[in-house]
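ugh finaly. both done.
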Amino acid sequence: MNWYVAVPFAVMSMLAAVGGIAAIRTGWMLPRVRKKVFRPRLWGYASLLMAVCLALLIFDSPKTHFPFGDLGMAGTLIALAMMSVAQRPPGGAEVGVPAVRLSGWAPDQRKRAGQL
């Protein structure tokens, strides 16, 4: 891989790894992403996997006999799926609707809770 492609990949890989480690250890995330993510540790693991996959893509070339590019792309797709799961609210509830237990509730209380 040429240096003008490898250097940005290496920088993005390091930044993704730092963000992933911060999310795993402390739960801290960038403010732009913080509002959408409900599971910061899962987001951190996905970011770390994305960093490893970007680093694998650097070593892909026709001269190697190991499919680094294929592993990198497959891992990137898995990391994107993990990131989308990390953005879903826990329990499958909709955003803005409180996750409440509905057993034993009367129908009018369900309407007020917005869950009917």
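ok and the 2nd:
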Amino acid sequence: MRNVGGRKKNMKNVKLGTALFAATVLVSTNAFAGNWVQTGNTWEYHDNGRRTANTWVKASDGHSWFWINDAGKMSVNECFIHNGQWYFTKADGIMSDRVRASVTTMQFCIKELVSL
């Protein structure tokens, strides 16, 4: 009887070890997919271990966007032109979805910057 119980215990250890190994692989793979890094009071987005710049990063909610500027920092309370289109990022860094057309966005940006 002891031998049978020992086999069950060994099997549980093998399953636990396998699960831990799989979790470790998933976590280490995710680390290189893309992650946010805080530098002082700003944020950077790193992809495959390298800082990104002049790019959009989709938020974890699946529909919001962050802009990473040419200095590699997340844009905050900032108006900018990208590919001929005006954009505004809010205090949390998320692109404002209240503006669409270039002229409207430019006017919106002026109002937002004046109110800061």
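summary for the 2nd one i guess: The two ends are 76 Å apart (CA to CA).
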